Amino acid sequence: MSQTVDRALSILPLLAEGPADLGRVADRLGVHKSTALRLLRTLHEHGLVYRQPDQRYRLGARLFALAQEAVENLDVRDIAHPHLVALNEQCGHTVHLAVYEENEVLYIDKVESRYPVRMYSRIGKPVAITVAAVAKLLLADLPEVERRTVAEKLDYPRYTSRSTTDAAAFLAELATVREQGWATDLGGHEESINCVGAPIRGADGRVAAAMSVSAPNVVVSAEELLGLLPLVRRTADAVSREYSGTTSPGHKPAP
């Protein structure tokens, strides 16, 4: 039975490459055509494959509907939260999770630090989009034209002397973030607060959310916080794997 299931499931990635006839399916599986036909008929009955008029098979609409339904029912916050808590327990600093929605970057989860100093951030509150590490990660993943359009429409408040000052500088920073796969805010919003962040990717490799660790200078220096970057990235990769249902953290987005 397990061999039959394995063979049936092996047909799906083959058809993802494009329509295939019975002979090609049988050859790929290493089975007789009659065996391949039985498997294809079963998948067809469940709507997972479709038999075209030219007698070739392709992936069925039911498969796409199931995939869409699964994606819509995924909640990145629910998946990420235990990982955020574990990261907080390891480092002791404030951990954030954010998403990009309707031209705003919003915090959707937060685990407070273990020390008395508290950050102003609140779940549901917009992020300072031109300086926050999570915002840079989310915007850096946008297609180039959209990235440029968004950057040129933003205001650039001078929160501190380290704030990003204009669209050109912001786009240059986004290009760096896109290439390196992580981001920082070293005193760009508040002189005394530093932050390092990493992306969380979905099954398509695109950035679905971003997470970060933040801490004040009085607790840890910027250099010491940057030392936590490998841990932050490992945590983000773990969330990505669970969120996307893959064994790897996803692919780099296309330019």
UniProtKB/TrEMBL annotation:
- Listed Pfam families: HTH_IclR (PF09339), IclR_C (PF01614)
Q: Which UniProt keywords apply?
A: DNA-binding, Transcription, Transcription regulation
Among SMART domains, the record links this protein to: HTH_ICLR
Top-rank lineage group of the source organism? Bacteria
Q: Where is the IclR-ED domain?
A: 62-245
- HTH iclR-type domain residues are 2-61
Know the name of this protein? IclR family transcriptional regulator
Q: Which PROSITE patterns match?
A: HTH_ICLR, ICLR_ED
| PANTHER family, sorted | HELIX-TURN-HELIX TRANSCRIPTIONAL REGULATOR, ICLR FAMILY, HTH-TYPE TRANSCRIPTIONAL REPRESSOR ALLR
